[in-house]
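In response to the reviewer comment on reproducibility (Comment 2.3), we provide here a single inverse folding case reported in full, input and output, so that an independent group could reproduce the run without further information from us. The structure tokens appear first.
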């Protein structure tokens, strides 16, 4: 029977594939998937960790200034009529936008995962400012990628990243606009992928070594058994030995990428 369609609602998802009904999903370069899956695993553990939630709550309250205020838009309410209209003043948060909310969670995850530096990409600059700010707060080096046209027109946020924060290095890309992250700065992601491949190869070498060692030990046991039989009787035949059993191949343990990203 056909499975009924899941309603397209934020209240019903996301499911294990990141889908909200027919919308959503994961659209990233295949080489980044090991890092994405590693991040997902760490997040599933962190969100149920009382210490992680307590630290995030404290930073949101005392560092970012949340919860942000509600402002009754009296003039707009009168103009439109009907329901009262309120503005959620996310611009009053530290760094001047809502971007600090997720950047705080991301920097705590980076610290939890043992990462060494922070990279970010930004268009208007607000995400770059928030990323650079939390990186400075926790002592991480930070590189922010930004298109050349965006850099030219967003001088205020550029100053916030490169001067007032002091920790960020602004990388001005030759492309005029912010594009796909894996295209804009492949050198960062390629390094992470190389480390991932290296760890996988090491795992396969360890598996092959252990399999050869197990097989050698099994054959040595047969030789010792044959030597004992020769001491007990004058002749022995192949029927005196059980068939040689090859040891089962060991599964390569899942290896998490320990990238510097």
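Designed residues, in position order:
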């Amino acid at each position: 029977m056909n499975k009924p369609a899941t309603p397209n609602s934020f209240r019903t998802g996301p499911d294990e594939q990141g889908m909200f009904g027919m919308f959503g999903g994961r659209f990233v370069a295949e080489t980044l998937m090991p890092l994405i899956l590693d991040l997902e695993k760490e997040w599933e553990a962190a969100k149920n960790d009382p210490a992680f939630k307590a630290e995030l709550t404290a930073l949101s309250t005392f560092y970012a200034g949340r919860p942000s205020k509600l402002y009754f838009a009296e003039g707009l309410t009168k103009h439109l009529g009907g329901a009262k209209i309120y503005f959620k003043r996310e611009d009053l948060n530290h760094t001047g936008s809502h971007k600090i909310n997720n950047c705080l969670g991301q920097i705590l995850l980076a610290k939890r995962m043992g990462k060494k530096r922070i990279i970010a990409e930004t268009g208007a600059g607000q995400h770059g400012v928030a990323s650079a700010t939390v990186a400075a707060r926790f002592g991480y080096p930070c590189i922010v990628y930004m298109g050349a046209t965006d850099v030219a027109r967003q001088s205020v946020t550029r100053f916030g990243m490169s001067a007032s924060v002091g920790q960020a290095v602004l990388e001005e890309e030759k492309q005029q606009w912010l594009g796909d992250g894996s295209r804009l700065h492949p050198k960062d992601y390629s390094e992470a992928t190389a480390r991932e491949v290296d760890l996988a190869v090491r795992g396969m070498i360890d598996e092959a070594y252990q399999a050869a060692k197990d097989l050698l030990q099994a054959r040595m046991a047969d030789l010792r058994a044959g030597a004992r039989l020769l001491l007990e009787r004058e002749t022995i035949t192949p029927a005196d030995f059980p068939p040689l059993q090859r040891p089962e191949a060991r599964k390569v343990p899942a290896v998490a990428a320990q990238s510097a990203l």
